[in-house]
Design brief:
367 residues; alpha+beta; seven-stranded mixed β-sheet; 9 strands; 18% strand; binds phenylalanine
Length: 367
C-alpha cells in the first residue's frame, strides 16, 4: 500500500520520480474500486482533509521544501491534486454503475412466468334484460328518462290519480321514510313502488309530444320468496302526442314482445285496472315454451302475463296541464313491466332470489 515518502532530493529528476510513483499508486487503487463503499474508502484515503494523501503531500513535500524549490514543488503538487481528483471521480462513476448493475441483477424478475389472470366482470342478467328492453324502445324513437328511488307521495301516487286512502294503494305495499308525521301527506317521502312517477317528472320537464322509457329500481314491502323481492326493477314507457289511440299501444307492445321473445309470439290484451290509465290492460303473450298448447310454465293456459298498460287517464294530464298537456288536445299511453319477471321467463329461471345472491356459478351462465 502506497505511503507518502519524505523528500530529501528536490532535483527535477527526483520530483519526477516521486510524482510518477504517487500517480501510479492512485491509478492502481482507483482501478481496484468496486462498489460504492469501496469508493468512499478510496476517496477518503486520498482526499480527506485530515491526513488524506493530498494533505500529507502538502505537509511533507511543499511545506518542507527549501525556499528555492518551493515554486517548482508547488506547481507539481497542484497538478497532482487535479489528477488525483480525476481518478476519484472516474472511480465513482465506474463503481456506481457497478452498484446499479448489481442491484438490477439482484432484482431480476422472470418475465416468462404466467401472470395472475383476473376474470372479467359481465352484465348482470337483470341489467342485461333491462338494456335489451330499453334498446327495443330506443329503436322506436323513445328516449331514456330517470328519476330518484326516494319519491314523494304526490309523485308516486297522487299525481297518478291514486287519491289519498284509495284502495289501489294497497296493491303496492309501500315503504315510507320514518318520522314525517308533521309533513302533509303529499310531501311525505317513500321508496317508489313503481317507475310511473318518472312519467310525471318527464311530462313536467318536457311539453308534448313525448316518448320516453324509464328503467329503474323499485321497492315494495313484500316478503321475499321465489317470485317476490322487496327490491326489483321495472321499465316504464310513456308516449303522448295528438291522436294516439289504443291501436298505437297495441302495435307498439306487440312489436316489443316479438323483439324480446321471438317473432312467432302472439299478444293479447286482457282488461285490467290501474288508477292512472283508462282503459287499462294486462298484456299476455302466447307461451313461448309450448307455443300455446299449455304446459307447466303457462299453468296450462297457453298464455303468459307480462305487463300492465293503458291509455293515460285524463286525471293524470291534469297534474301536468301547466306544461301543455291538455287532455282535450292530446292523448297517450303508458306501460310498465317487471324486468326480473321477464328475465326469469326468458331464461327459464324458477327463483327470483338467484338474482340477488351473487353466486358466480349462477351469474357465469349469462356471460
Ligand atoms: N306502474 C304499474 C305497476 O307497477 C305498471 C303500469 C305502468 C301499468 C304503466 C300501466 C301503465 O304495477
Amino acid at each position: 500500500m502506497y505511503t507518502v515518502p519524505q523528500l530529501e532530493d528536490y532535483s527535477p529528476a527526483a520530483l519526477d520520480k516521486a510524482v510518477h510513483e504517487l500517480l501510479a499508486a492512485a491509478r492502481q487503487e482507483a482501478d481496484a474500486v468496486a462498489g460504492e463503499n469501496e469508493w468512499k474508502v478510496f476517496r477518503d484515503r486520498w482526499m480527506a482533509r485530515k491526513n488524506g494523501i493530498l494533505t500529507q503531500i502538502n505537509d511533507l513535500w511543499l511545506k518542507a521544501a527549501p525556499g528555492p524549490a518551493k515554486r517548482e514543488v508547488g506547481a507539481r503538487v497542484n497538478q497532482l491534486k487535479t489528477q488525483v481528483e480525476e481518478h476519484v471521480s472516474a472511480a465513482q462513476q465506474r463503481s456506481s454503475g457497478a452498484t446499479s448493475i448489481a442491484r438490477l441483477e439482484s432484482e431480476r424478475i422472470d418475465i416468462t412466468l404466467p401472470g395472475i389472470a383476473r376474470e372479467l366482470g359481465a352484465e348482470h342478467p337483470v341489467i342485461k334484460t333491462m338494456n335489451e328492453i330499453v334498446s327495443v324502445f330506443r329503436a322506436m324513437g323513445y328516449s331514456i328518462a330517470e328519476g330518484p328511488e326516494i319519491e314523494t307521495d304526490y309523485l308516486n301516487f297522487e299525481a297518478l290519480n291514486f287519491p289519498p286512502n284509495h284502495p289501489a294503494r294497497d296493491t303496492q305495499d309501500t315503504i315510507f321514510i320514518a318520522g314525517q308525521e308533521k309533513k302533509k301527506q303529499r310531501d311525505r317521502l317513500l321508496l317508489r313502488t313503481h317507475t310511473s312517477p318518472v312519467q310525471i317528472r318527464a311530462m313536467l320537464n318536457q311539453p308534448p309530444p313525448i316518448r320516453v322509457v324509464a328503467p329503474g329500481k323499485v321497492h315494495r314491502a313484500d316478503t321475499a320468496d321465489a317470485t317476490h323481492s322487496p327490491i326489483f326493477h321495472q321499465v316504464e314507457g310513456l308516449a303522448v302526442d295528438t291522436n294516439i289511440t289504443f291501436c298505437d299501444l297495441k302495435g307498439t307492445l306487440d312489436h316489443a314482445m316479438k323483439s324480446l321473445f321471438g317473432s312467432d309470439v302472439k299478444t293479447r290484451f286482457y282488461p285490467s285496472f290501474f288508477p292512472f290509465t283508462e282503459p287499462s290492460a294486462d298484456v299476455q303473450i302466447t307461451c313461448f315454451k309450448c307455443g300455446g298448447k299449455g304446459c307447466r310454465l303457462c299453468k296450462m293456459s297457453g298464455w303468459i302475463e307480462l305487463l300492465g298498460c293503458g291509455m293515460i287517464d285524463p286525471n293524470v294530464f291534469k297534474s301536468v296541464e301547466s306544461n301543455g298537456y291538455d287532455a282535450r288536445k292530446i292523448s297517450g299511453f303508458a306501460f310498465g313491466m317487471g324486468v326480473e319477471r321477464i328475465t326469469m321467463l326468458k331464461y327459464g329461471i324458477d327463483d327470483i332470489q338467484l338474482f340477488y345472491q351473487g353466486d358466480v356459478r349462477f351469474l357465469q351462465q349469462f356471460t
